[in-house]
Each structure stands twice: as structure tokens, then as C-alpha cells.
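INTERNAL TRANSFER SHEET
From: sequence group
To: structure group
Subject: Pectinesterase inhibitor domain-containing protein

Please process the attached sequence and return the structure record in the designated field. Keep the field labels unchanged so the import script can parse them.
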Amino acid sequence: MNPSISLLSLISSILHCLLVLNFCGGVYVKGDIVSDICKGQSMADPRINYDFCVSSLEANPLSKTSDISGLAVISMDLCLKNATYIDTYIDSILKDGKAEPRILRNLKDCMEYYSTASENVQKAMKAFNGKYYYEAINYINNAGIWADTCKLGFTEFGDDFSLLKKQDNDFFQLTSISLNIIAIIRGPKILQ
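Return from structure group:
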């Protein structure tokens, strides 16, 4: 067993337990909830940028007075708005039509993927509102998978190809933030 992996797992578990204890019952005990959530997430997953997490959540003024459940709703709303923005962005590139045919074909696929991702986020919001947290987590996870599928379609153009690189990365981070917040609310239960 790799000792660095087990240490990372231990640290992640400790952070998760501390977050669950702090957010018990949807009441935040101390500190700045957005900063604390983003710090925990960026420490547990280096792909989540702390500053991106904070600025994204704080873009909604309600985040300053929200409890953990309110932040879950805000984070899912950010996912939905971001997927809609990406869909519009892709549409503008397709209408321009100046990209090579292979890129245009991949972009059309990505439009479908982000449309499906949007549907998954909407289903996650509905599941979350009904307190079906496990389902909400699955739907948000699926939204992230669809976006990742879009990114994989461009690997044939090389690592430096960046047509949707920033958009895919932002959406990945937003879905990860939502997943982690909902997981905190759900707690360590096996099924719910």
C-alpha cells in the first residue's frame, strides 16, 4: 500500500468528520462557512482551487447568510448557470463556423453533453429539495461525467488544445463543490 495515499485518505476522512460535526443539523457553529468549506475542499482535492470556490459561492449574496443547505442550493444553481453558459458559448462557436470540421463535430457532441449535464443538475436540485441526498449526489456526479466526456473528445488535438479547457475545468470544480457540500449534509450514511 502506498503510504502517501493512505495518509491522504486519513486526512480527507478527518476533514470530512470535522465538517460534518461543524454543520450538524444545518447550523453552522463558527467562522466563515464559505471559506471553511472551500478550504476543506481544496485541501482534500487539489483539483479544487480555493479562490475559485470562494469567489464562485460568494458571487451569490445569499451565501453570506446561508447555512450549509443554502450553500448546496447555491452551488447547484451555479452548476446549472455554468452549463447553460457553456452551451451558449459552444453555440456561438458553431454559428461562427470557422473551426475545422473535426472540432465542430466535437463541439456539437459537447452541446449535447452539456444539455444532458443541465438536465442532471435540475434533477439533482429536485432530489435535494426532497431530501434524497444520495440521488442528488448521483445526478451531480453524472453532470460532471458528461462534462468530462466533452473534454475527452478533444484529447486527439493534444494537451495544449484549450477551446473548452477553462469551461470544462470550471464546471468540474463547480460540480465537485456541489458534490462535497451535499455529501457533508448527507453525512456518513451508506444509503439515504
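Handover comment: The longest helix spans residues 68-96. Residues 85 and 177 are 18 Å apart (CA to CA).
Transfer complete.
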